Amino acid sequence: MVTLPSSPKQFNFPNLVQGVAQLCRPTLSVLAAMASCLSVFVLQPQTSVWVYLQTATVLICMTAGAFAINDFDDIEKDRINHPERPLPSGTLLPHHAWWIAVMLFCIALGAAIPLGLSCWIVVAISALLLWNYAPILNISGILGNGVVSMIVAALIFFASLVAERPWAMLYPSIFLFFYILAKEIVWDIHDAEGDQQRGVNTIANLWGLTPAFSIAWGLIGLLLISIPLAIARLTMAHPALFGCCAILMLLSYALALWRYQIIQTSQTYTNLIVLGRIGMILGLFGLFGTVPSL
């Protein structure tokens, strides 16, 4: 049973705005939009500004809505793992997060309509999976990891649909899927206590921390091996850009992961998140080098 304050603490406009911003993670939401818009640009440079605005609206609202509904579902777990977040801290109430998520998903679905039926279907399926993420997680935390990884990879696939080149970014989408899967497994290591109390079966809880770290390392290793193979076998516009950026992304995250595995503290976990985000930006630019020429 959720035990939260009956009203938000220090209920005033500045605190409410701060709580909504913390709930929706605007930095990550904008980053998702930038990734898709940059993908559209490299795939189809003649795309109109209106299409970019629609694409950005879809991705910002989908990503922010995903964070909102996830925090709504994870209140009890966050009381243990992330008590500073707006819902467990009482800055916002659960029904605030629920309605914010509904509004954002509706805006995303509406903005996707002019982009075409295939784009709308991708957005609708993603929204449905995100809305039902908690029940999926209750079935299997490992399945939940796969859902999150698939939805993040869909950012790139969605952009290829917008640009009307649906298979041009297949390898980057697969690459991103396994990279996010590795990160999801590591995040479950950090959240193991909260997941265990909720009865969520993650790799860390089912098999232990060492196998979880090993699987994450294995995925990173497979991605490193895939880089020279992809350069050799795929037609890329800028293979050197892809190779350098993708390797730097993986190595920077691997360094942070190695430190976190040695000593699991809040500082090493924060470093892991920061380097992961920086590497993600670098890696996204590198993945654009995989685009075949028009």
From TrEMBL:
It comes from the Bacteria. The keyword Transmembrane applies. The lineage of its organism: Bacteria, Bacillati, Cyanobacteriota, Cyanophyceae, Acaryochloridales. GO terms for molecular function: transferase activity, transferring alkyl or aryl (other than methyl) groups. The keyword Transmembrane applies. The chain crosses the membrane at residues 20-43, 50-69, 97-130, 142-163, 169-186, 206-231, 237-260, 272-291. Keywords: Membrane, Plasmid, Transferase, Transmembrane, Transmembrane helix. Gene3D superfamilies: UbiA prenyltransferase (1.20.120.1780). It comes from Acaryochloris marina (strain MBIC 11017). PANTHER family: CHLOROPHYLL SYNTHASE, CHLOROPHYLL SYNTHASE, CHLOROPLASTIC. It is found in: Membrane. One of its GO terms (cellular component) is membrane. This is Prenyltransferase, UbiA family.
